[in-house]
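Submission sheet (multi-component)
Chains listed below:
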Amino acid sequence: MGISAESFLSARRQATIAELMRFIEIPSVSTDPAHAQDVHQAAEFVAKRLIDAGIVDARVHPTAGHPVVTGSWRHAPGKPTILIYGHYDVQPPDPVAAWTSPPFVPVVRADRLFGRGASDDKGPMMIPIKVTEALLATEGALPVNVVFLFEGEEEVGSAHLGEFIEAQAALLAADFVLSADGAQWRADLPSVITGSRGLCALEIRLDTTGKDLHSGRHGGAIANPIQALVQLLASLHHADGSVAVAGFYDHVAEVAHGERALIAAIPFDESAYLQSVGASAADGETGYSLIERNWIRPTLEFNGIYGGYAGPGKKTVIPSHAGAKITCRLVPDQNPHTIANAIADHFRVRRTAAVRLTIDVEKGVAWPYAISPTHPGLVLAETILAEVTGKTPARVRMGATVPIGALFKRLLGINTVFFSFATADEDYHAPNEFFRLTSLDAGLTAWTRYFRALAGRSIQAV
Amino acid sequence: MGISAESFLSARRQATIAELMRFIEIPSVSTDPAHAQDVHQAAEFVAKRLIDAGIVDARVHPTAGHPVVTGSWRHAPGKPTILIYGHYDVQPPDPVAAWTSPPFVPVVRADRLFGRGASDDKGPMMIPIKVTEALLATEGALPVNVVFLFEGEEEVGSAHLGEFIEAQAALLAADFVLSADGAQWRADLPSVITGSRGLCALEIRLDTTGKDLHSGRHGGAIANPIQALVQLLASLHHADGSVAVAGFYDHVAEVAHGERALIAAIPFDESAYLQSVGASAADGETGYSLIERNWIRPTLEFNGIYGGYAGPGKKTVIPSHAGAKITCRLVPDQNPHTIANAIADHFRVRRTAAVRLTIDVEKGVAWPYAISPTHPGLVLAETILAEVTGKTPARVRMGATVPIGALFKRLLGINTVFFSFATADEDYHAPNEFFRLTSLDAGLTAWTRYFRALAGRSIQAV
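Outcome: structure written.
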């Protein structure tokens, strides 16, 4: 006699959208102290949705920063347990004037729901809650065990998430993480994320004299710190674009030929991409395609350089100092600390006597992350994406850093499967953020199938 | 019965100092439009001194900028003619708060006359005027022919001096220039200047994308303009510090072994020099001493570099552009235009497809200058300096640019002998500028002897 979870969700589609709009109306901007109360209100909103869904132990946990919301349902003995991750905080709406409609007054236009956080991550994170609600309402039980973990600091670096996870390891115990965050690469191509790059950062500064000197009176006598700097920086790359730092590639995990073949098969319009960023040509390490260079190869990037006079016209000075900021995007299994120190050593052995070298290695790093393409949770995500979209999903890596993958791996020893229905074109972190209602529908269908299908699979932590 | 010019000068010493103090009281700051009337008043002051000295045709010439003051005495047929150069404008006094006594309230402390312009160049340029006055007053004639040329734009680049010289070539005709400007190198060592370096300037800028890009999402795909820039800039020098630009040294005039031996013989405390500028070590082209590198070797200096983020902390961007400012100090017989273009060509042939290269070669240049060490006017200056100081003068080159040497050479075809009694330690261009009264005395004696001795010499324009 009972209706299916799918029918339940269909019948409540408008109510779900209305609920999501109320969620978006809460300006939970985590970076702005003026919005601290709004962030807390958003946490309470999420806990209430979980309780309404039937997650009776849902609660808001205070942290040294913004709250974490958890809830669990562990009544499927012998079945896999998934840790569902998402975040309820949002980016600042600036520049507000660039929005067609106010950022915290959600509105649907042309089947898209506009508002700050619609795509990142309020829309996507509501999906597993609503699916849980539908299954519990219609079947009285979930096919698998679930734990929810929603944080309020994703947009500000998840500063307190690590200590929360460590403290609550028992509460959070699961076979793997299924993340509602982590937008798909493109709207026209379903995809699963198989890895993300790590990050290390350092700054180099060369000092020579106490103050800038007249280039005529002193030129030729005294070291020019920019000259010394460009020599050092130029030595960091080979002519083929590869990094020349000793040991840089030592622990780069070999990428299976199969993965490279899959990357090569992804339809990608390189000239459209270059045009979109205003570049006249691609550039980078030879021997790899543009996508490979961005996904599976580490980089050493100069983020900034300074020294001497940079205003209009000329100024005949020998600068007193010069410096540069460097970050590396790292791939499995590079150690960010080891790499930063290798670069520092590269400078130390090459410095000349006439410059005083200061190297500031940033303590904070992000670790690269990769999941095995055979991880059953990932394979299931691919299967269901293919069913729901009618297309074969691509396996993509993130060129950027997605810290939670490495965080859960390090603290709980489990992998993360990204199963978000946001797409990278939805202007999150920009004005006029939106979430496609078709993606909401697809997500509700896909997560319901995922829960059900997972119950029949054997999961070993990979 | 008449007294000697020397006695005349001695008797009027206090009056001369008082007159110089009145001159310094006029704030003839040429760079500041608010002081335009003061600059004009200083020109009138100079013309009046010349007339009082017996130079009856002295006059103030308007130019498109500040005035030029001239005067001549050509009643020594068969004798050499010298063009006496100096300037009556001064540097701004900023920072005024750093002065012990107000910059335009001259005061004598410990045998030093303090005040803006005391050393550069009001004190030194008053010397030939007072010597002329003394000789005409006591002997009724000068031993040689003289033409005075005092400008009011030296501190702002002598923008209108060239066209004035060209227009007044007949008035200014002389065998050589004797300059009251061009401070001696050191207070402890008399010296004559045998050359100065030239200058060319250019800026290079590399553009890649329309805006800074996220280094994760795009790192590896797109050229990093700082990486391209440091590669280009690093290619400008060889490992030995010499310049790697093709043709850079092609026209560098060979320096006689004798001149290098003289330079080597100059007492010079390198560690004291390095300490004075705050440098831990000297640096530059191998195979040359510190002084040689500063005097007789050309340099290619980076004056500034910019690109990306230079604020506190890190910012994970791939910059959209990067650039650098470059100047070269050039030696005889390098052509500043040729050198700037050679550097531009160096960049053009090495640029990569992924960057858009912009090179801005500055049209304004300064030419290097050198006078033959056997020029009779120079040899005479050395002889008299040795007599007056009791020390053998050093032959020095200016690492900096002294444009008037090349200007007179180019426009009038004559050489310039620098015969200033200012010294480089007198804080001109800085607070608490001063002129040693002992230098005033030595200058009056030396210029009197110079006039007299020159009458007995044969001068050929070299």
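Remark: Chain B touches chain A through 78 residues (CB under 8 Å).
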